């Protein structure tokens, strides 16, 4: 198949600022960013708690969260669909086939990534940081924040990976969003649809945007880490 023509058309769409393309890109960006912003703090807090405390069932909970990393996203989509459907327990919220449903799905998908990365980062930190902070009179919250600051590069990596997983998700987004033009059609679902229809130009254009976004957030992470991330 000759890819030159659709690739050329893809660049034309991007340079021309095609309205439909821009709506799809904007939806993907704001839903993904909002999902990560909402889920980051509780996920990091849970990860810190699991890394620093010991309680009955703690190990089981860690294993469960780790298992969620490889959980099929279409199953997550199915569960959310059943919960949000008209006959489901949350049907009264009327969130199914809206951007909010996709956002909830993104939060569920990103949560175990953020938790597991935080656990790994905190367990790899020098335990004397927390102990010293406590000995110097810091409260639980301040000592915890001090430890998290010490492992901030690992936390940033968690946020970036969670965002990357969310913005590239297809199966769950189609199930709970419905891939409705102008309402819930985002970059991954639009790529899947347009490729199936044989409209490779828009698929390539959106794929390029997705790659640029992924590259951009990773470059930003590397810039923030600087030499500190290499130690």
Poorly predicted regions: none
Major β-sheet annotation: none
Q: Look up the CATH topology.
A: MetI-like fold
Task: Quote the average pLDDT.
Answer: 88
**H/E series:** HHHHHHHHHHH
CATH architecture: Orthogonal Bundle
Global shape: globular
Find the count of extended strands (DSSP E, 2+ residues).
0
Total number of helical segments?
11
Number of structurally distinct domains: 1
The CATH superfamily label reads: MetI-like
**Terminal-residue CA separation:** 47 Å
The percent range for strand residues is under 5%
CATH class term: Mainly Alpha
Q: Can you put this structure into words, describing what you see?
A:
The protein has 231 residues and is mostly helical. The protein has one domain: MetI-like fold. The chain is built from eleven helices and no strands. α4 packs parallel to α9 and α5 packs antiparallel against α9. The longest helix has 34 residues. It is globular, with a radius of gyration of 20 Å.
How would you briefly describe this protein structure?
With 231 residues, this protein is mostly helical. It is 76% helix and 0% strand. The model has no long low-confidence stretch (mean pLDDT 88).
Key terms for this structure?
single chain, 231 residues, mainly alpha, MetI-like fold, 11 helices, 76% helix, globular
